[in-house]
Write a structure and sequence with these properties.
The chain is built from 13 helices and no strands. It has 259 residues and is an all-alpha fold. The radius of gyration is 20 Å and the shape is globular.
């Protein structure tokens, strides 16, 4: 499971999934209930990231039978978080809200503060999707505050990026830029290429909305550079970026001819 965790951090999801499945098989052979529950949770998290929410839900539902015999009851907030993520992917937003709130309630009861930022952030994502931006912002900021207290750099970057999304969704592109750029500054400490790619893409989109096409192209090129570091899993993103850049470059050329 620990090797799988390292691979997941590097976004090598397929290899991580193989390690988690191997961990589950070993746990079943030796009858380690705790590790079976943990492995099922880890497998589900990868399936969600790979776009298989229904398979993830089957795994998650099978975990509950192990809790009565397991010492892993502290995993319950994380399990509920994952179930909420599955419900979100399946567009069952009411169930997503229920599971995230239940997870927060249990995390508070058993003093699992480390689980709160992800639950709050994902709950905020539901409200952003429902375009209830005030609630979403409050939840993101609460998540950001806890992540800051915990020294969780990745959590802080994710919150800043998504607060930027809220302002972008409200057409406040200048405010969105501030949060995207602050996230870039923090990402320099962990140097995650895919995160750089996403953030530079967001900055490029914001500049494009502000009518600053040359700046948008600069950041699209930066995004492409970082996406190409992990080309195999970012191929679709690179194709979309190439299309955006071509559209902008032709637009700039047309404007020069019209002047």
């Amino acid at each position: 499971n620990k090797l799988g965790d390292l691979l997941k951090v590097k976004s090598d999801y397929q290899t991580a999934l193989e390690k988690y499945k191997a961990a589950r098989e070993l746990a079943e052979k030796i009858g380690d209930i705790d590790d079976i529950a943990k492995s099922l949770r880890n497998i589900s998290s990868i399936l969600i990231r790979q776009g298989n929410p229904k398979k993830a839900l089957v795994n998650l539902n099978s975990i509950h039978k192990y809790f009565d015999d397991s010492n892993q009851k502290s995993l319950i907030p994380r399990i509920l978080n994952l179930i909420g993520m599955v419900c979100f992917e399946l567009k069952d937003f009411n169930q997503a809200i229920y599971n995230y709130n239940k997870g927060l309630e249990i995390a508070k009861a058993i003093n699992k503060i480390n689980d709160k930022p992800a639950l709050l952030h994902n709950l905020a994502e539901v409200y952003r999707k429902l375009r209830n931006f005030d609630i979403a912002l409050n939840l993101y900021r609460e998540s950001l505050e806890i992540a800051n207290d915990l020294g969780d750099l990745t959590g802080k970057i994710i919150c800043l990026k998504h607060i930027g999304y809220v302002y972008y969704n409200q057409n406040d592109f200048s405010e969105a830029l501030k949060y995207f750029k602050n996230a870039v500054i923090l990402n320099k400490k962990i140097n995650n290429s895919d995160t750089y790619g996403d953030l530079y893409l967001n900055i490029g989109n914001a500049f494009r909305q502000l009518g600053l096409e040359p700046k948008a192209i600069i950041y699209y090129k930066k995004a492409k550079h970082h996406y190409l570091i992990n080309k195999s899993r970012n191929e679709l993103k690179v194709q979309k970026l190439n299309k955006k850049m071509k559209e902008l470059e032709w637009g700039i050329i047309e404007m020069l001819f019209l002047q």
